[in-house]
Amino acid sequence: MAWYPGATKMELQPESDAQPAIKPTQFILHSIVAPWTTQRTYEYWRDSTNLESHFGLGYDGSLAQYIGTETRADATGAANRRADGTGAVSIETASDTKASDPWTAAQVEALIKLGVWLHQKHGIPLRICRTPSDPGFGYHRLFKEWNPDAHSCPGDARVEQFHKAVFPGIVARAKGATAPTAPKEEDGMPTAKEIADAVWKHPLTSPTAAKGTDPNRSAGTFLRWGDQHHAELLTRLDQQAARIEHLAAQVDRLLAAHTQG
Length: 261
Fold this sequence. Notes:
By secondary structure, the protein is α/β, with parallel strands linked by helices. It has helices at 15-18, 38-47, 105-122, 156-174, 192-201, 222-260; strands spanning 8-9, 23-31, 55-57, 63-65, 86-93, 136-139. Helix 3 packs across helix 4 (156-174). The protein is rod-shaped and about 125 Å long. Residues 181-187 and 205-225 have low confidence and may be disordered.
């Protein structure tokens, strides 16, 4: 049996020794429909049911392993173990009680790291399973054979994340892309360029516009509106200066005529 070095080992007995061996060819993701820690999930598998998953994942990204990945776990219907001895590695992930919330950033990162390890350790191919028995990556409701009770697990939000973030992240990381570096604590403030970019892109209604309208929206941003407004003010000032100059000339002519008279 194989144990992932990035997880806390919480071995379930007698299942870990009593259940048959598998050749892992799939990694299938679940939501447990409860906001449980990995310890609480372990206790539930141990005390309340004859089902179990290989892994449990908390909201904070903490990961526990309950059964070795080369031993059958009973979380995914027909994918647990097939007649040819192949089977799926399963993970239950903390969720809300309706399985409607997305995975946290910490959960996504943990899933990517585990997926990469399973690819490297067991040769699970970097593709989404095309059939119930096809080697690859998937989620509980992907095939009815995996999900005989027709649950929505892992939930709509997480299915979208699987396709947009988790599986692409596993593929990218497995092919050598580096993990995003977390910002240092002292770098928490945005840079000057980030501030400038954010201000430049921020739309703002003209203060002279009628309520609920924005005649300058086509200009795109507050700064562009400011540039336009500034130019209009300069034009008005130029016009006023010209008028003043014209009036001054008239006054000069009147004074000259008065003096001559």
